[in-house]
Backbone:
């Protein structure tokens, strides 16, 4: 019995410590997140911003709760008023704003979020380096993911679907990023690359399907060398590349490719009518 009482007290103290450390407390629309915070309830029909992040080294974990707005002017999760470091935005459902999640900063993580039904952007990265953007869904927005002025970021295993314009739109300066494992379907454009200062990016092992204009469009003849390989393209028009610098293949390399072949090399093109005898 004594052991049981000690264990119960230890369990309660440990649970209380966890609650305090994660900052599980009531949050209201428009609040500023200044410590690790886990939402305990939905924030619905916010008249302005949903929540604001303006300090480094914090985690916002929505735990699957919804942050919704009733406007097309403000932002659901607003994390761009200053350049942030080591911030984590996780497990949020954000809808009904001008943009769902907008972030700028370094060494941070945006993961497991669902951003939908926002007028302009689902998830927007305004600037930053070495960020991980993974496991998110962006649907029924203007653009799914809008990315500008970034280097050395990873965009992995996201879904961008049913957006009015682009699944991924890369703008201004986008250098040495990785886009891999993403599913980009039923948008107007899958990947939209409109400017010349976009180079050194690797776009590989993505499923790019059902986009109504282009699977990928590279609009500027001076766009730098990006490497695009091992993707599955099945769109009305798979690619339109005005640049002569794009690498559409890598050296033939052993490994399972996106259609189950034994080598990595090029891409799968639904409109290719030849025979790929070595399935690379």
Residues:
């Amino acid at each position: 019995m004594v052991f049981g009482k000690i264990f119960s007290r230890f369990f309660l103290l440990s649970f209380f410590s966890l609650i305090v450390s994660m900052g599980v407390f009531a949050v209201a629309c428009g609040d500023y997140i200044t410590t690790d915070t886990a939402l305990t309830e939905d924030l619905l029909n916010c008249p302005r911003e949903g929540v604001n992040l303006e300090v480094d080294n914090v985690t916002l974990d929505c735990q699957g709760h919804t942050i919704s707005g009733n406007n097309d002017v403000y932002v659901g999760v607003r994390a761009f008023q200053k350049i942030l470091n080591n911030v984590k935005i996780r497990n949020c459902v954000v809808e009904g704003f001008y943009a769902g999640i907008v972030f700028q900063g370094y060494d941070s993580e945006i993961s497991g979020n669902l951003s939908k039904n926002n007028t302009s952007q689902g998830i927007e990265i305004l600037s930053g380096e070495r960020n991980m953007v993974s496991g998110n869904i962006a649907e029924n927005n203007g653009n799914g993911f809008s990315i500008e002025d970034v280097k050395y970021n990873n965009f992995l295993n996201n879904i961008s679907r049913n957006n009015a314009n682009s699944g991924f739109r890369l703008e201004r300066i986008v250098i040495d990023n990785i886009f891999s494992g993403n599913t980009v379907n039923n948008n107007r454009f899958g990947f939209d690359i409109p400017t010349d200062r976009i180079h050194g990016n690797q776009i590989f092992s993505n499923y790019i399907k059902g986009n109504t204009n282009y699977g990928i469009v590279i609009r500027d003849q001076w766009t730098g060398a990006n490497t695009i390989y091992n993707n599955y393209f099945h769109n009305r028009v798979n690619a339109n590349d005005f640049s002569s610098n794009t690498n559409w293949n890598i050296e033939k390399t052993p490994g399972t490719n996106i259609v189950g072949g034994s080598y990595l090399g090029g891409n799968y093109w639904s409109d290719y009518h030849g025979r790929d005898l070595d399935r690379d």
Observations:
- The radius of gyration is 21 Å.
- Helices lie at 2-22.
- Residues 2-22 form the longest helix (21 residues).
- The chain is about 10% helix and 45% strand.
